[in-house]
């Protein structure tokens, strides 16, 4: 009895709020959406009304509000109450087979992904899945894992991470063209050069904290980009550098069409760039695995623990005799090195680099992936990269939307809107990201995950 | 006993603070303050709120650069360090002075055990060949990390925290956090341990547990410098008391000596916090 009267009042409340939302959105949108101005043939400004579209907006606002107040919020409140009652921490330990072996399954899935897409979509058709989805996502996974060392572990907010990606890419592009060095020589070299720049930048900057650090790193990212644009003698400015050599199969087989030891010829396969892309897929997968391995290993080393301690409390670190400057520098340098590796890979994959690939937006996207994934968690970050980058690529595929919204509709233009929306949704429901808990690096009796509410984000 | 007598013997002095001054803008927080702490003792630095006790600690441990003065630390093997010339982390790393904070500063998102391992950073860093040998899985590092865990276990046991070793530090009750912070400071292997109001906010049972921990630290060979607010705690456990008021030393000696010093009584002893102000007012008006 009490239940149903509760429900009735709830529905009344929801209906009332829905009406208010409708009125507010009507007021908001009537001028923006309800009325459209355009120029006619004589270039005169005329206007017309779009009451239908306006009605759609208003109805969406009202219905959403109704659903949120009437159903979603009570449901969430109830869940929260249940959780509080049961006193269950955020991570439950009742894991099933899939959860326990998640990483192995994911790795096997990734290994059979290229042959599978060749089988299902044909050699040429697999290009889209291997290149646009596979490689693209894995590059971001690697970048985000690299940035994770700086932001997620050491708690240093770096808004210019793409600078190191650019240093790696241009190192490979320029050195391979000037000196004809191979990919396998230049890959480590690009990483080392990026790390070097990381140290050069880090040395003066890491004394700063918080917002100051964020702004200076942001500026550094922009400076690198502007240098790339303006130093035309070396970088060819906005034209970029094209004709960057392809990576070879450890020097054994080449993927250049004219070469004598061409991979497809050697194996008697039909000519297709798909094989090169599949090779690149495994290459970036290996680089990602290397990054993950290094991150996992380093976390259990004293230096990794010092990074996390630094994120938690810098002053306490100093009181324990930890040199915070060198500790920050190593985090910065290793993050930069991984960015440099990814940059070299990017250059060889594209065959072309230009400053346009290294704009601030890239840094923001990488940072968003780290934050969405849950700072510090490799799994969470990988999931976030798949959702974000894969989602963007999916948008490009949604041709059918053109039939709904008209031929001018280009879905990928809405990618930032959806990105923002996804971030808001995740931050509302999982404020610590997809994986908010933290795996301890050492234990006496049992390894218990640390709930996100205890960990800190760092001061800068 | 006069204040000077037991400090004249320099042989077993561990810390010597001479003419220390610290100025913040127009405020002279510490004004020409000198004292000595002896090896193997628990030395207490007491004084009303705002007297400058924490500031003295911050000068000793390098978090502030003193405006004037000299702070000398003498290690067991006879090495001397001038602390005001070292950077904060070097004071722990080289001079072997470690500290806790008035507002507890734990790594709350790390487990209790991890907190104690972070404290052994420098030793582990060396053993891991600055990470490189450690990454290669050298046996020397494996041995060193096992030793680090053993040391952590030892202090977990002393701090009565073994049961909570795998829980996040932020999840401990207040008293447990205090003890963990002390255990963590001890894991750096200090010769002098500086504690900033370790008993503040503890209930009587936690207070008793803290006293046990402090005594076992002293018996272990570390000297303790302790800031305290609560007089009863100080009188019970300290060997030597220095009293600070408005940045100046007003008394120095054994607990008994300090307890009976009229200056200390007027400023501090036997009166509640709010009564102190009352008495001070009365002093100003010349009524006492
Ligand atoms: N960083 C600082 N800047 C300015 N004034 C300070 C600073 N630190 C301490 N003080 C001042 O120095 C005086 C002594 O403070 P403190 O050492 O914290 O006292 P206690 O620990 O004895 O309670 C206070 O008046 C305080 O306001
Ligand atoms: Mg204080």
TrEMBL record, chain A:
<feature type="transmembrane region" description="Helical">
    <location>
        <begin position="18"/>
        <end position="35"/>
    </location>
</feature>
<feature type="transmembrane region" description="Helical">
    <location>
        <begin position="102"/>
        <end position="121"/>
    </location>
</feature>
<dbReference type="Pfam" id="PF11862">
    <property type="entry name" value="DUF3382"/>
</dbReference>
<keyword id="KW-1133">Transmembrane helix</keyword>
<feature type="transmembrane region" description="Helical">
    <location>
        <begin position="359"/>
        <end position="392"/>
    </location>
</feature>
<feature type="transmembrane region" description="Helical">
    <location>
        <begin position="156"/>
        <end position="175"/>
    </location>
</feature>
<keyword id="KW-1003">Cell membrane</keyword>
<feature type="domain" description="High-affinity branched-chain amino acid transport system permease LivHM N-terminal">
    <location>
        <begin position="15"/>
        <end position="112"/>
    </location>
</feature>
<dbReference type="InterPro" id="IPR001851">
    <property type="entry name" value="ABC_transp_permease"/>
</dbReference>
<keyword id="KW-0812">Transmembrane</keyword>
<dbReference type="InterPro" id="IPR043428">
    <property type="entry name" value="LivM-like"/>
</dbReference>
<feature type="transmembrane region" description="Helical">
    <location>
        <begin position="51"/>
        <end position="72"/>
    </location>
</feature>
<dbReference type="GO" id="GO:0015658">
    <property type="term" value="F:branched-chain amino acid transmembrane transporter activity"/>
</dbReference>
<feature type="transmembrane region" description="Helical">
    <location>
        <begin position="133"/>
        <end position="151"/>
    </location>
</feature>
<dbReference type="GO" id="GO:0005886">
    <property type="term" value="C:plasma membrane"/>
</dbReference>
<protein>
    <submittedName>
        <fullName>ABC transporter permease</fullName>
    </submittedName>
</protein>
<feature type="transmembrane region" description="Helical">
    <location>
        <begin position="413"/>
        <end position="429"/>
    </location>
</feature>
<dbReference type="Pfam" id="PF02653">
    <property type="entry name" value="BPD_transp_2"/>
</dbReference>
<feature type="transmembrane region" description="Helical">
    <location>
        <begin position="274"/>
        <end position="296"/>
    </location>
</feature>
<feature type="transmembrane region" description="Helical">
    <location>
        <begin position="212"/>
        <end position="233"/>
    </location>
</feature>
<feature type="transmembrane region" description="Helical">
    <location>
        <begin position="181"/>
        <end position="205"/>
    </location>
</feature>
<keyword id="KW-0472">Membrane</keyword>
From TrEMBL, chain B:
<dbReference type="GO" id="GO:0042941">
    <property type="term" value="P:D-alanine transmembrane transport"/>
</dbReference>
<keyword id="KW-0067">ATP-binding</keyword>
<dbReference type="Pfam" id="PF00005">
    <property type="entry name" value="ABC_tran"/>
</dbReference>
<dbReference type="GO" id="GO:1903805">
    <property type="term" value="P:L-valine import across plasma membrane"/>
</dbReference>
<dbReference type="GO" id="GO:1903806">
    <property type="term" value="P:L-isoleucine import across plasma membrane"/>
</dbReference>
<feature type="domain" description="ABC transporter">
    <location>
        <begin position="15"/>
        <end position="271"/>
    </location>
</feature>
<dbReference type="GO" id="GO:0005524">
    <property type="term" value="F:ATP binding"/>
</dbReference>
<dbReference type="InterPro" id="IPR003593">
    <property type="entry name" value="AAA+_ATPase"/>
</dbReference>
<dbReference type="GO" id="GO:0005304">
    <property type="term" value="F:L-valine transmembrane transporter activity"/>
</dbReference>
<protein>
    <submittedName>
        <fullName>Branched-chain amino acid ABC transporter ATP-binding protein</fullName>
    </submittedName>
</protein>
<keyword id="KW-0029">Amino-acid transport</keyword>
<keyword id="KW-0547">Nucleotide-binding</keyword>
<dbReference type="InterPro" id="IPR032823">
    <property type="entry name" value="BCA_ABC_TP_C"/>
</dbReference>
<dbReference type="Pfam" id="PF12399">
    <property type="entry name" value="BCA_ABC_TP_C"/>
</dbReference>
<dbReference type="GO" id="GO:0016887">
    <property type="term" value="F:ATP hydrolysis activity"/>
</dbReference>
<comment type="similarity">
    <text>Belongs to the ABC transporter superfamily.</text>
</comment>
<dbReference type="InterPro" id="IPR051120">
    <property type="entry name" value="ABC_AA/LPS_Transport"/>
</dbReference>
<dbReference type="GO" id="GO:0015808">
    <property type="term" value="P:L-alanine transport"/>
</dbReference>
<keyword id="KW-0813">Transport</keyword>
<dbReference type="GO" id="GO:0005886">
    <property type="term" value="C:plasma membrane"/>
</dbReference>
<dbReference type="InterPro" id="IPR003439">
    <property type="entry name" value="ABC_transporter-like_ATP-bd"/>
</dbReference>
<dbReference type="GO" id="GO:0015188">
    <property type="term" value="F:L-isoleucine transmembrane transporter activity"/>
</dbReference>
């Amino acid at each position: 009895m009490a239940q149903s009267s509760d429900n009735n009042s709830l529905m009344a409340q929801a209906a009332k709020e829905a009406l208010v939302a409708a009125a507010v959105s009507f007021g908001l949108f009537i001028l923006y959406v309800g009325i459209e101005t355009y120029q006619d043939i004589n270039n005169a400004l005329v206007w017309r009304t779009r009451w239908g579209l306006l009605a759609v907006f208003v109805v969406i606002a009202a219905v959403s509000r109704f659903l949120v107040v009437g159903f979603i919020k009570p449901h969430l409140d109830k869940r929260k109450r249940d959780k509080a009652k049961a006193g269950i921490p955020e991570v439950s330990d009742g894991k099933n087979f899939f959860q326990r072996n998640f990483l192995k399954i994911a790795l096997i899935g990734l290994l059979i992904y290229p042959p599978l897409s060749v089988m299902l979509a044909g050699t040429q058709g697999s290009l889209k899945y291997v290149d646009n989805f596979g490689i693209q996502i894995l590059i971001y996974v690697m970048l985000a894992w690299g940035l994770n060392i700086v932001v997620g572990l050491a708690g240093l907010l770096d808004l210019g991470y793409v600078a190191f990606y650019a240093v790696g890419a241009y190192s490979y592009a320029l050195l391979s063209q000037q000196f004809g060095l191979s990919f396998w020589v230049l890959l480590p070299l690009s990483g080392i050069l990026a790390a070097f720049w990381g140290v050069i930048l880090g040395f003066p900057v890491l004394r700063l904290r918080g917002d100051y650090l964020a702004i200076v790193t942001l500026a550094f990212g922009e400076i690198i980009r502007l240098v790339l644009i303006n130093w035309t003698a070396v970088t060819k400015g906005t034209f970029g550098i094209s004709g960057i050599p392809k990576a070879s199969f450890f020097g054994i087989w080449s993927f250049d069409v004219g070469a004598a030891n061409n991979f497809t010829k050697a194996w008697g396969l039909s000519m297709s760039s798909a094989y090169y892309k599949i090779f690149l897929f495994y290459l970036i997968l290996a680089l990602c695995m290397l990054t993950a391995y290094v991150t996992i290993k380093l976390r259990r080393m004293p230096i990794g623990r010092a990074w996390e301690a630094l994120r938690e409390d810098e002053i306490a670190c100093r009181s324990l005799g930890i040199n915070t400057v060198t500790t920050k520098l190593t985090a910065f340098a290793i993050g930069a090195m991984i960015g440099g590796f990814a940059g070299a890979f990017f250059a060889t994959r594209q065959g072309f680099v230009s400053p346009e690939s290294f704009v601030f937006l890239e840094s923001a996207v990488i940072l968003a992936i780290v934050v969405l994934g849950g700072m510090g968690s490799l799994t969470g970050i990988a999931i976030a990269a798949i959702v974000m980058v894969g989602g963007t690529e999916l948008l490009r595929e949604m041709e059918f939307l053109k039939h709904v919204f008209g031929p001018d509709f280009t879905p990928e233009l809405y990618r930032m809107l959806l990105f923002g929306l996804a971030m808001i949704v995740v931050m509302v429901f999982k404020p610590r990201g997809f994986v908010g808990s933290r795996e301890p690096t050492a234990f006496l009796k049992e390894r218990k995950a640390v709930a996100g509410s205890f960990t800190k984000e760092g001061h800068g | 006993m006069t204040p000077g007598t037991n400090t004249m013997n320099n042989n077993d002095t561990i810390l010597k603070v001479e003419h220390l001054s610290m100025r913040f803008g127009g405020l002279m927080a510490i004004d020409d303050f000198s004292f000595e702490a002896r090896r193997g003792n628990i030395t207490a630095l007491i004084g009303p709120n705002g007297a400058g006790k924490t500031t003295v600690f911050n000068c000793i441990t390098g978090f502030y650069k003193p405006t004037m003065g000299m702070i000398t630390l003498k290690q067991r093997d006879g090495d001397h360090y001038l602390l005001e010339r070292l950077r904060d982390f070097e004071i722990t790393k080289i001079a072997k002075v470690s500290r806790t904070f008035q507002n507890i500063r734990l790594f709350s998102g790390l487990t209790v055990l991890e907190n104690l391992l972070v404290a052994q950073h420098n030793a582990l860093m060396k053993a891991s060949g600055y990470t490189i040998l450690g990454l290669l899985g050298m046996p020397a590092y494996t041995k060193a990390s096992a030793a680090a865990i053993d040391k952590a276990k030892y202090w977990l046991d002393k701090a009565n925290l073994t049961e909570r070793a795998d829980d996040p530090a932020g999840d401990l009750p207040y008293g447990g956090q205090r003890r963990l912070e002390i255990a963590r400071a001890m894991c750096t292997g200090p010769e002098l341990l500086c504690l900033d109001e370790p008993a503040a906010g503890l209930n009587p049972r936690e207070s008793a547990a803290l006293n046990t921990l402090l005594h076992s630290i002293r018996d272990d060979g570390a000297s303790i410098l302790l800031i305290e607010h609560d007089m009863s705690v100080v009188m019970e456990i300290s060997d030597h008391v220095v009293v600070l008021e408005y940045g100046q030393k007003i008394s120095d000696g054994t607990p008994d000596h300090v307890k009976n010093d009229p200056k200390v009584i007027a400023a501090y002893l036997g009166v509640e916090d709010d009564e102190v102000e009352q008495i001070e007012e009365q002093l100003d008006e010349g009524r006492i």
